[in-house]
Design a protein that fits this description.
By secondary structure, the protein is an alpha/beta fold. It has a single domain, classed as P-loop containing nucleotide triphosphate hydrolases (Rossmann fold). It contains nine helices and ten strands. A six-stranded mixed sheet has the order 6-7-8-3-9-10, sandwiched between helices. The chain starts with a strand and ends with a helix. GO terms for molecular function: ATP binding; ATP hydrolysis activity.
Length: about 250
Amino acid sequence: MNKDVKVIKVKNLCKKFGDFTANNNLSFEVSKGEIFGFLGANGAGKTTAIKILCGLSYPTSGEISVAGFDVYKQREQLKRNIGYMSQKFSLYEDLTVFENIRFYGGIYGLSKEVIHRKADDLLKKLDLQHARNKRISSLPLGWKQKLAFSVAIFHDPEIVFLDEPTGGVDPVTRRQFWDLIYEASREGITIFVTTHYMDEAEYCDRVSIMVDGKIEALDTPAKLKEDFNAVDMDQVFLALARTATNVE
């Protein structure tokens, strides 16, 4: 992680839908190579914020840059420099493993030669050479997950956004998936991840916790546990939720 290089800069981000405020004055920065956890209950505003950071939605107000690009004026350049993986893994079930890799490589603008070379390296790394011509629908969930993440960073993006990437998989597969995240981070890719598994927050360099559209806490897991006199991140999250409820 390079703390001096900020690849995400967010200042006073607001997003309103009529009278409803989904994101209320969010401000934070993310460093190059950092694993940044974006936590919160359903409806807290996480997905709305991610769509803005990925160039899929405009903010109502605020100053936001991602990978050095302005989210208002440079959305297409931004999209080419990030990766994205959702809980549904973003893979086409009726295409083969290689056809998915080739398809996404083409979208990212890679040449045929580069796609074939990187595909060979990727399948060897994941020990999936035998599944090259198998349809995605025939693969176990854990394989789909690892392949989807690898495809999301196939073009060596500055940042990859992972939206609930480990939902529905067993604990062992989740741990293996985080090994891939750590490796990508060591290679300089910034990881921006949402998760509802509080134990996964422990794997992040820093975490932001949103409650009702606001960032109520942002720090390292160790510092947050110290501040809230908590033994784990579940207790931190519950304490913040109770505080927000009492304020209301």
